[in-house]
Amino acid sequence: MTKNHEPADNPLQEQPFVSHLLELRDRLLRAVVVVAVVFLCLFPFANDIYIWVASPLMAHLPVGTSMIATEVASPFLTPFKLSLVAAVFLSMPFILYQIWAFIAPGLYRHEKRMVMPLVVSSTLLFYIGMLFAYYVVFPLVFAFLTSTAPEGITVATDISKYLDFILTLFFAFGMAFEVPIATIILVWMGITSPEKLAEKRPYIIVGAFLLGMLLTPPDVISQTLLALPMWILFELGLIFSRMFVRQPDRDENGEQEPADGSITSANPSTETAGDPPVYPAGGSVVPVDSDLGAGATPPDDRPRFDGDPGMDVVDPERFVPLSDEELEAELNLIEAQEDQQEEVAAGPTDLIEQKLLQIQALRDEGDELGARQLLYEVLADGSGSQIEVARNILQQLDQG
């Protein structure tokens, strides 16, 4: 009698989709709870927080004027909204950690080592961008805007309009300071290279000023203060991204394959023997029979190129038929290539399945290194479902 195995008993069976949704729900609930706790701690000080945020504008208001509230509920809702947004910003490290913990099991070990520093650095850069906006941009922008008011016009800004204004600037400068992270990710994923980005530097500078124009108020100061840091941060990202350039892949013979498709030998000393000959003008090159001596004349009295004793120059309009031996050799070569193509077309699926069975046997024996080597081969040559199985096994090995 055969025993029916449950899905959980099969190590190659991935988790059902519902379990991923349940885990995502739990992590989102944790993030919401943390934001709520931080908000409850900040709300008693909501008015003090708003006064601190509004101090860059209030310092430049004319003497005897202040900010106003034009809506009935804005004296309560505006500090409430500010406290909630501040709670989200302060809880961002925990929120990003929950996102990281959710996607980490699906990443390889080298990807985990790469993603975690990027998450930490991107969070710090976002906070630095907000501080730069508050301590550098706000005083200059508000001093300029209040000084340009027409004569006889009293500057009295509504508190809700001011909050919307500064939140836009906070978000704009926080995202602008993420330029180095975006540059590093683009290079690391192989989408572009530092050299190509350096060539597009003029376009990137113009794009930075365009973004500054769209994301900031209609004044030159804030636009310039956003565009210049973006340019400088792009240059920093360009410098650091050179450390993440992917090296050219090498084939099984030790030769590396550059991005342009040409092949460069890993051993330079072996390249001279395989260099292509220089073809003489007006003729084709035909190898000389190795049995002939250096000064011998070819059997069909064809002229030989004196610059290369191993080559013959033949009139391109002259047809030279193959001998019986050469024709037989060509046919044998074509048949061998066709057989090889049939084997390659029919064999990979069965071969990958055999490798998966062998991987399971190696895991039972405790040979984790051998199992990993076969898993990498399955990832390179397998089909969609086979690759998913290999990834699940790698995840189990990493967690084990």
Mean pLDDT: 75
Low-pLDDT regions: 1-12, 247-314
Task: Tally the structural domains.
Answer: 2
What is the helix/strand order?
A: HHHHHHHHHHEEEEHHHH
Ends apart, CA distance between termini? 33 Å
Task: Report the biggest beta sheet as strand number plus sense, adding barrel if it closes.
Answer: 2 strands, antiparallel
Number of helices: 14
Across the major sheet, the strand order is 1-2
Kindly state the percentage of residues in helix. Answer: 55-70%
Describe the global form.
elongated
Q: What structural class do the secondary elements suggest?
A: mainly alpha
Rg of Cα set: 35 Å
Beta strands, count: 4
Query: Strand percentage, roughly?
Result: under 5%
Give your account of this protein's structure.
By secondary structure, this protein is mainly α. It has 2 domains: 230 residues, no CATH class; 53 residues, Methane Monooxygenase Hydroxylase, Chain G, domain 1, CATH 1.20.58. It contains 14 helices and 4 strands. The strands form 2 sheets. Strands 1-2 form a two-stranded antiparallel sheet. It has a two-stranded antiparallel sheet with strand order 3-4. The two termini are 33 Å apart.
Describe the secondary-structure layout.
Elements lengths: L16 H26 L3 H13 L15 H17 L1 H12 L5 H39 L11 H18 L2 H10 L5 H6 L1 H15 L4 H22 L7 E2 L5 E2 L26 E4 L23 E4 L9 H23 L1 H18 L2 H14 L2 H16 L1
Antiparallel strand pairs: 1-2, 3-4
Brief synopsis:
With 400 residues, this protein is an all-alpha fold.
